[in-house]
Design a protein that fits this description.
Number of helices: 3
Largest sheet: 5 strands, mixed
CATH class: Alpha Beta
Strand content: 25-35%
Number of strands: 5
Distance between the termini: 12 Å
Number of domains: 1
Order of helices and strands: EEEHEHEH
Strand order of the largest sheet: 3-2-1-4-5
CATH architecture: 2-Layer Sandwich
Shape: globular
CATH superfamily: Dinitrogenase iron-molybdenum cofactor biosynthesis domain
Structural class: alpha/beta
Radius of gyration: 12 Å
């Protein structure tokens, strides 16, 4: 399992971005909470369609769970079509990830 968390910054001590499709970065973790990589979101700025484009990008990276402050309707539809789980969370990424893994 790979978990992608929408982030306002490049590091694990950043906060979860409130905007799923327009998050500046996604931090990728394994199912044990080990940090794997930071991905710059090329769809953070620009025209429409960010949510579905981000969903495809993350699916192509074999992500199966996404956490963001808010997942918009279009991104949610794209994630549902691909069978990807998503959760709305707020706060520091380390804390959010730790709590999320305990819930599993």
């Amino acid at each position: 399992m790979k978990i992608a968390i929408a982030s306002v910054g490049k590091k694990e001590d950043s906060d979860v971005s409130s905007r799923g499709g327009r998050a500046p970065y996604y931090l990728i973790f394994d199912d044990k909470g080990k940090f794997l990589e930071t991905v710059s979101n090329p769809f953070a700025i620009g025209g429409g369609g960010a949510g579905p484009s981000v969903a495809k990008m993350l699916v192509d990276m074999n992500v199966d769970t996404i956490i963001a402050g808010v997942i918009g309707d279009k991104m949610a539809d794209a994630l549902n079509e691909r069978g990807i789980k998503y959760f709305g969370r707020e706060g520091n990424i380390k804390t959010v990830l730790s709590n999320f893994l305990k819930e599993k």
